[in-house]
Give the backbone structure.
Amino acid sequence: MEPFDFISPSSIEEAVKTLASSGDQARILAGGTDMLVQMRAGRRTAPLVVDIKGIPELNVMSYDASKGLTLGAAVPCYRIYQDATVATAYPGLIDSAFLIGGIQIQGRASIGGNICNAAPSGDAIPAVIALGGVCNVTGPNGTREILCEDFCTAPGRNALENGEILVSISIPAPQPNAGANYLRFIPRNEMDIAVAGVGSAVQLDASGQNFVSARIALASVAPTPVFAKEAGDSLAGKAVSEEAVQQASELAMAAAKPISDMRGTIRQRTHLIGVLTRRTLNNAIERARGG
Amino acid sequence: MPGVTQVQTTLNGEVINFLCEPRQSLLEVLRDVLGMTGTKEGCNDGNCGACTIILDGRIVDSCLVLGVEAEGRDITTIEGMASPEGLHPLQQSFLENAALQCGICTPGFLLASKSLLDQEPEADEGRIRHWLAGNLCRCTGYDKIVRAVLQVSKAK
């Protein structure tokens, strides 16, 4: 790696001040599982690396049954799925935290880092979008909230302005009769990059027979993760049925704008979005019904 | 030019100090600064697990940790696995089951397996295979490794 300076601020204020005065000369280090690889390969350079893991707010994981989950941007994946309360409340989030890399990667990689890295294939991003996650950002001009679906702006680029850091992600409290699921397709069993991925979340009525609302998001089929709003909205108010799920999956396929590359073709990826949308919706419905 | 930083850390139970540049990975520090060459470099990008170490009780790829991040942490490498009394049961089992050929992946597999059985002494075959997915072996075909870990596991 090219030489760089390293600092480890202990407060948000200190981090923001350093980042704001360094401009594009500084890069933020959380788990490092993407960033250090990119720097070693020369795809990213930074004269200054700012390790944000020493900031208390970025290590918070707090859950309240009425307020929901606040997930510090540096909390590594293993802490999320090892927390029985969080794992029970957000199985759709655990689906992704449990399949990012292997156990070694999960010991370091964070959901916040996955979102900031803004890879089209980031496994956590569709899961967080489907759950209605909000990114809490602090910068030189104060704090602001960015919807997760608006956070990634291009491959490897995000909505953070100069001096801003992602402090945490807020995920609304799980409602009764709600369920979520994330699935990806990879040719191996573990340790691979999604050829395509889908995160779905559904809210059913008390009978469990009708959709109140649904949110569907897609991975690896566009320059950024895709919020397939029309696909989810198509289910609102409808009875739970194979036809409704089929129709939503076709709308999700229409929202996918994949490319052909070494991992898959346009045709295969579009097909996979249909299959994975149906599977994740059916799994989410089952979870919503308490299955 | 960025200078060197002094880092204090606990390595295999002993408090040590070392000097490193911020750009050096913990893997480079272990091998090149501290002479602890038991930790191997494979892919150097987090895919192969050859450089697996235990950092504060969790396995991580040391190629994806900076040396300066080791400040105040607790590190176990392969050099800390055996005791003065003899090999760790997993090391013995790897020998008995011929769970290695060229040996480059072995320290990583041993530490990953130790970490699993320390947390889940009754890990079954499925769990072992899942846990070891972050460690690549191009020689054995994995079966002998899984068998070696299973022999030490208390799984019925």
